[in-house]
Specification:
single chain; 8-stranded parallel beta sheet; 5-stranded antiparallel beta sheet
């Protein structure tokens, strides 16, 4: 019987935290859903050469690192079910294309992170094909198998839709003649790998080292990092990622790892012991609510508390704020396509602590909501009739020339959302207080006014106060005792003026002030 289930409360491996080199800390990161970004050969699919051709665009925007969604061989359009871990899907190009992309990115000072999908494989992976063929297969124990009666007796036959997975019955039969089911948290087409198997661990570690050492990637975005073991064995997941980090750092000491851990901050914290960076999903959801309602809901106080929780696990944790990604409603749709609110969203993303991630097209106001394909619609480079780079693999429902102005149009408009992002990214990089990633620097401003979100970014070279108007009307904001000495406006969107000890701030405007 598998330890996977029977040792429900097995303690984690005792893996000490070694003093590895601090990961390279890019200032602004950019997620690309590869299929939808840029088509280089006219087949309708975004590809690696298309991304390489757009590196100057990304550099000019201010991007320091790219996270590419999965590119390895896979039967699905999204490629989160891998068939061959040491491959490039022919739809996207070749291994040589990928190497060239990395080399060209590095020439421009841009890092490249691979989306490493190791929680599960494809059901078409040779390992699983062999595993389901016979219980005596050498790969049977690469996956998790149990008889239905045991599953029922343990009370694990069903689960609630949570943690990024909506699969309610995660146990599946592989063959009619097999009396055991296998565990596939997300779907039967994605069987979970069994990390109680040391041989599997060794294989995965060697694959990771190969991408780092031989291919040249700078790090990994770790898909479904929370689900390496089921929730009731969370300490084993924490320990696994510590071991994984140690193994990867053995070939690239400054390796960058960022985890997708979709849960509450207290449960995210232990993952920082092995994953230096994690996406802040909780803050992401709260930002959506703030931008929709115009009420800051004690956001800064809560964020500071969460940071203390993270720091207890790893004082050098790297927070990664986001507005959208390939799994959730785009921020433009969340706030009803309002460009002023999109600019406010950008203001918060790029002035809060951490390493912000932009989802491709966010800078031009792309829209989208589920089903997933419509979160991942083609990027609009120019007007459709002349856009040779625009992928055509799907007909967009949300981001069309009628709803979103293409990049070329926005580049020519100094007041566009694109130019707002570009100016704001450049400003962020010019300010030591804003660009600091670790240790995290955030304090409350003492300003308490409806419709206003404000905070201090302290730094030895000079503190900054950020004040954001969340409403559609001009606000007069008296300074608090903490902020009354901040009178110099370094950056403003809309009108922002200090008058008689107060800040007059235009609708949806932001001001960044120094002493």
């Amino acid at each position: 019987m598998k330890r996977f289930i029977l040792s429900l409360f097995t303690s984690a491996l005792a893996i000490g935290q070694a003093a590895y080199a601090q990961p390279k800390t890019p200032k602004v990161c950019y997620e690309i859903f590869v299929r939808s970004f840029a088509d280089s050969n006219g087949d309708g699919l975004g590809d690696l050469n298309g991304i390489t051709a757009k590196l100057d665009y990304l550099k000019n925007l201010g991007v320091d690192a790219l996270w590419l969604t999965p590119i390895s061989k896979s039967p699905s359009y999204h490629k989160y079910d891998v068939v061959d871990y040491k491959s490039i899907d022919p739809e996207y190009g070749t291994l040589e294309d990928y190497k060239r992309l990395i080399q060209e990115a590095h020439k421009r000072g841009i890092l490249v992170f691979k989306d490493f999908v190791i929680n599960h494989s494809s059901s078409e992976h040779p390992w699983f094909v062999s595993a389901k063929s016979a219980k005596t297969s050498p790969y049977r124990n690469y996956y998790n198998w149990l008889p239905p009666k045991t599953i029922d007796s343990l009370g694990i036959a069903t689960r609630e839709a949570a943690g990024g997975s909506w699969e309610l019955t995660p146990w599946h039969f592989a063959n009619k003649g097999d009396d055991e089911k296998y565990y596939g948290l997300f779907t039967g087409m994605m069987p979970d790998l069994n990390y109680d198997n040391p041989q599997l661990r060794k294989e995965i570690y060697e694959i990771g080292k190969w991408w780092l050492r031989d291919i040249g990637v700078d790090g990994f975005r770790l898909d479904a990092a929370k689900h390496i073991y089921p929730d009731w064995e969370a300490p084993k997941s924490h320990a696994f990622w510590q071991e994984f980090y140690k193994e990867m750092a053995s070939v690239k000491p400054e390796v960058y790892l960022i985890g997708e851990v979709w849960t509450t901050p207290d449960k995210v914290a232990p993952y920082f012991k092995g994953l230096p960076a994690n996406f802040n999903i909780d803050a992401h959801l709260k930002l959506h609510d703030i931008l929709k309602t115009g009420n800051e809901h004690g956001f800064v106080k809560k964020l500071i508390s969460d940071y203390k929780t993270y720091a207890a696990a790893n004082p050098n944790f790297i927070d990664a704020p986001i507005l959208s990604n390939h799994d959730g409603t785009r921020i433009g749709t969340v706030i009803g396509g309002d460009i002023n609110k999109m600019k406010a969203a950008a203001n918060l993303l790029l002035t809060l602590p951490g390493e912000p991630y932009l989802y491709y097209g966010e800078e031009i106001g792309m829209l989208g909501e589920k089903p997933d394909e419509f979160l991942r619609e083609p990027f609009l480079w120019t007007a459709q009739a002349t856009d040779k780079s625009r992928p055509t693999w799907e007909k967009p429902r949300f981001s069309t020339d009628q709803t979103v102005r293409p990049l070329s149009v926005q580049q020519a408009d100094p007041n566009s959302l694109y130019n707002h992002y570009k100016k704001l990214i450049a400003f962020r990089k010019s300010q030591p207080a804003l660009v600091q990633v670790t240790p995290v620097n955030l304090e409350e401003s003492g300003i308490d006014q409806d419709g206003i979100l404000s905070f201090i970014r302290p730094h030895q070279q000079g503190n900054l106060v950020v004040i954001q108007n969340l409403t559609g009307e001009m606000k007069t904001i008296p300074f608090s005792s903490t902020t009354k000495s901040y009178k110099k406006v370094l950056f403003r969107t809309n009108s922002a003026n200090v008058v008689n000890g107060a800040l007059q701030l235009g609708a949806y405007g932001m001001a960044v002030l120094a002493k």
